[in-house]
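Methods — Computational structure assignment.
A single polypeptide chain was analysed. Its primary sequence is given first, followed by the predicted tertiary structure written as structure tokens.
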Amino acid sequence: MKKFYTLALSALAVLSASAQQRQQPIAFDASTLAPRAERQVKALPALDLKAPAKASMNPTTINDYAGDYIWNCQSLLSGGGSMTNEITLIITDADKGKVELSGVFAYGNIPATLDAATGTLSIDNKIYLTNDSDGPIYFYLKDGETGLNSTASSTKATLGNGVFTFDPYEVWAVGDPDQEDLGFYSLTYFNTFTVVPESADPNEGWESLGMATFQDGWLLPAYNVDQTKEENWYKVELQQNILDKNIYRLVDPYRGEFPFADDNNSTAAHGYIQFNVTDPDHVYFDAVDAGFANNDFGLVKFYCYNGMTYCMGNFNASAAEVIAALESEGETSWTTFKDGVLTVPCEYDSTQGWISDAIFGDQTNKYGGWVWNADNKPVNMEAKIFFPTTTPGSVESINSSDNAPAVYYNLQGARVENPAGGLYIRIQGEKATKVFVK
């Protein structure tokens, strides 16, 4: 296994407490809330995520709780308003009910305890997270009604209808309880964790087009592999959305023929790189879990996308709004789809180094917009997807007539010269179909 000793996220400093900016809380008037006994707490709706999860709506064992959730909350910092984020519940010791929550805060996993019999999740009060230049940083609890630090030993919630609903008057703080005048890194209330239900059929609504050739610019550069060389390209299944023919996705791009598939510790049933070519001159991606996890890389979730998606996700803007705004600033480099090839460009600048349209997020920030660095310089992250009907290199269409030679691949993407006894992908001309060979 190769390690990325010199590689780091370009935004790694943003993830450290010393580089983040503390904020002062906005006014929180508990009198505006109905008394506890009268208030009906309603969980905020979960996001409609494409990637499946293992967490069960009706768990019977502790392992059934493992998987993906949506953390919904209200922020008390400047800007305020509703916040959502994907988190993952990981079982660390099933016998003792020990679990960890990944993605809640950008300081590593949060330990917790889960009573599988009652479905009760407990997070201790005052958990040390890290240090900044002013001292220690903790996760701790405050009483929203009094504004004082809570003396409770933990915050608890019991799963009901697929939702862990914590005390709405309990405020979750990230900062130093002994130096609150410095501000907070996070301050939230109405905290809930909502199960992301597992998809019954991840292929429902999608049609396989066969095996695309993938020049992976998102992950291979982290292994010091030059993905621009054809020898490092590999096959990945390509699917097309049945209802919207302009939406495509690669299925499990970091399993199968991915050169470092053995390093993948993701528990997701499937991963995807999903993109929309409605405007072939301005292609954008959907931020869905690509299905790669690795502790050495600090990744539990991995989201592959481009600058368009970053702007759409961070500023809640449409594709048209992002295009207009960036073109007004002179932007000319876009992800494009032409002649059966999706190209995510990367250009070299003598002062800035490589400027890539391929960027990614992780469990701490879905729309983080990060790239890989080597020696504090961005690396080349150019990416391409050659559709099954194109020949990599020449980018010419294969003969589409019914008399064109048929080529067979197994479901792992490996070419099979003499298929027999199983299910295969047959590519003939411009047609890609699943066939069963007896």
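Note: Residues 1-19, 28-55, 393-401 have pLDDT under 50 and may be disordered.
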